[in-house]
Amino acid sequence: MNNKIPKRSEVPESDKWDLSSIYKSNEEWEEELKKIPSLTEKVTAFKGKLSESSETFLKALKALEAAELQLETVYHYASLQHEADEDDSQATDRDGRAMMAYTEFQSQIAFFDPELLSIPEDTLREWISKDEFKDYKIYVEKLLHYNKYTLSEKEERLLSLQMQPAQTSYNAFSLMENVDLNKQFGSVKVDGQEKPLTQTTFTTLLKNQNRAVREEAYKKYYGKFEEFQNVIAALYTGSVNQDVFSMRARGYESSLHQALYGNKVPLSVYHNLIDCVHKNLSTLHEYYSLRKKILGLKELRHWDVYVPLVKSVEMKHSYDQAVEICRNALSPLGKEYTDRLCNGLKGGWVDRYENVGKRSGAFSSGSYIGDPYILLNYDENDIRDVFTMAHEGGHSMHSWYSVHNNPFMSYDYTIFEAEVASTFNEELVFEYLLKNSKSEDEKKYLLAMRADDILATLHRQTMFAEFELKAHEAVEKGRPLTAELLRKIYRELLELYFGPEMHFEENSDMEGLRIPHFYSAFYVYKYATGISAALALAKRVTNGGDKEREDYFKFLKSGGSRYPIESLRVAGVDMESTEAVQAACDTFRDIVEELKKLF
User: Cα separation of 529 and 506, whole Å?
Assistant: First the structure.
């Protein structure tokens, strides 16, 4: 951890992603942006004509495809630049103009879906059964699924016009969190030196073995968030209100129903996840009791839950060493998979390290044109960043296989599926490192770390999912959200999930107001279902043979050609059952029992 976070301009080009697979320059991007209005006009020329004949309908679909592909590519390039440096006013401008173009396009083609769905379903199905519609058949079938909740052309246009304003809450929160607040957290004294406290270093500082460092970082961080609690609560409330508005406008039963309907995920999957995790919370509470004993604490505080339980083990890996760990660990998937991934990790897919204005955390972002890009804030002193590399690499390889096995109109897989491919990779990295551990202390370290990772992905994300559900239900029942109510809901969940050993601070519940994912409603539960499916599939592939591996690749290649529940069944796991979630809880229990023995 350096004393100074570099500006974007100070980062070597070799450490940045190479966006030339999308556009060679910003000037080329500008030229491509200019083409969007004419491509839009080619789509709108078919207004009132979609039902004329199958030939006309096919031409309209091809025009729509060309426009949407152009928009996706233009927006992807601009958004990546913006995420890498939100302090860059030109990148922010390009991102804003791309979003404006997208919003304008959506408003102009608002006629398309209602007009398409006004065509008799039998006629549509007859048309798309023809060979010339093979690239569009799945797209049309998925639109038919939305028939019940698609509004009139005028209403659809109004809803599309509010797409950009609907992003205001998240955009304002992101700027506050990553730019304005990030400059105000101050510093923390570590080994006699002042280290900057930022969104990224906060996580690192909470893992410091010096408890005073952890406490100082925690109190300064949440103290600063608390100063702005009412503004942040208002921003999140705006996001929830937007979800409820959309739900009511379209006639869904609830915000949750709206979020799950498109992917044909039964509401029972969401509720069963929460119920199953609740039934297994005693193991989580046992783990926190064990953590308290191992750390030798009289009281377990919220800033004590991330520090490694084994003090003496240092696992430092350079970026290139981490790539080779991924190569070896993922070898059960075959050389073609590992070569392609590792060549990408070293060859321009990845923006590697933190810089001023860069988004915190990590993500993978793929599009039909260009490489599947990865944003990291890699720290060679943190073994979890090796797991993060494998995780995001799983997303990127999922994107690569989806693009290369599906037409544009049905290549994009769902987030529900995405978290399987990423967490699958994490599990293989864990098994590889555990198998190759050099000492009992290293084994302890890895097991404790894996317990924390499963906890963070299964239990913690389920807690987040429960918070989102309660917040939306409050508004749907006519109860306005306030900072006080949001904090009360979150504190009750903190106490439920962490159990009796944990002592919270008065502002610990501010954590619930600083989670960016909450601005994409009902997103986080997919991490929990994802790790459940991934653990089951990792065991199936590593213990199986060619068939099990090929089943997994069928899943990776599915893209958007199947609904997620069906896609995972092809891979070998049924997420409508609680079996996978319970098995994940059992895996966590087994690790806790092993830790008890080792310690």
Answer: 32
3-state DSSP assignment of residue 120:
coil
Task: Say how many residues make up the chain.
Answer: 599
**Would residue 361 be called left, alpha or beta, if left means φ above 0 and alpha means ψ between -120 and 50 degrees?**
left
**How does pLDDT run across 170-192, given as a tens digit for each residue?**
999 999 888 888 888 999 999 99
177, burial (CB in 10 Å: exposed 0-12, middle 13-18, buried 19+): buried
pLDDT reported for residue 106: 92
Transcribe 210-272 into DSSP letters. -HHHHHHHHHHHHHHHHHTHHHHHHHHHHHHHHHHHHHHHHT-S-HHHHHHHTTT--HHHHHH
| Half-sphere exposure in the Cβ direction for 46 (13 Å, CA) | 26
Q: How far apart are CA 388 and CA 188, in angstroms?
A: 25
pLDDT for residue 1: 42
The three state secondary structure string of 297-327 is: CCCEEHHHCCCCCCCCCCCCCCHHHHHHHHH
Below-70 pLDDT ranges, the chain:
1-3, 312
Say how far apart CA 65 and CA 366 lie, in whole Å: 17
Rounded to an integer, what distance in angstroms lies between the CA atom of residue 451 and that of residue 458?
10
Active site residue 392: yes
pLDDT at 308: 84
- Cβ neighbours of 221 (radius 10 Å): 26
Does the pTM of the predicted model rise above 0.90? no
b/e map 354-390, b = 16+ CB within 10 Å:
bbbbbbbebebbbbbbbbbbbbbbbbbebbbbbbbbb
The secondary structure of residue 288, as a DSSP letter, is H
Residue 301 exposed, middle or buried by CB count within 10 Å (0-12, 13-18, 19+): middle
Contacts of 248 (CB under 8 A, 6+ apart): none
CA angle 299, 301, 304 (to 5 degrees): 110
Rounded Cα gap, residues 550 and 307, in angstroms: 39
Question: Letter for the amino acid at 430?
Answer: F
- Token pair recorded at residue 112: 């398309």
Between CA 584 and CA 162 the distance in angstroms is 40
Q: Nearest-CA neighbor of 531 among 432, 448, 455, 431? A: 455
Report the alpha-carbon distance of residue 429 to residue 410 in Å, rounded.
Answer: 31
> Which residues, at least 6 apart from 431, have a Cβ–Cβ distance to it below 8 Å?
329, 538, 542
As a dihedral over the C-alpha atoms of residue 422, residue 423, residue 428, residue 431, rounded to 10 degrees, the angle is 150
Q: Which residues, in sequence order, are bridge partners of residue 350?
A: 374
Nearest to 70 by CA among 33, 113, 21, 108: 33
Here the tokens at position 564 are 């997620």
Rounded alpha-carbon distances, angstroms, from residue 4 to 10, 87, 137, 229, 376 = 11, 16, 53, 28, 18
Residue 131 buriedness (CB in 10 A; 0-12 / 13-18 / 19+): exposed
Tokens of 12: 């070597």
Residue 182 confidence (pLDDT): 84
Q: How far is CA 498 from CA 219, 272, 558, in A?
A: 19, 20, 38
86, 115, 392, 466: the catalytic one is: 392
For residue 44, CA distances in Å to 107, 156, 341, 343, 438 come to: 11, 15, 40, 42, 65
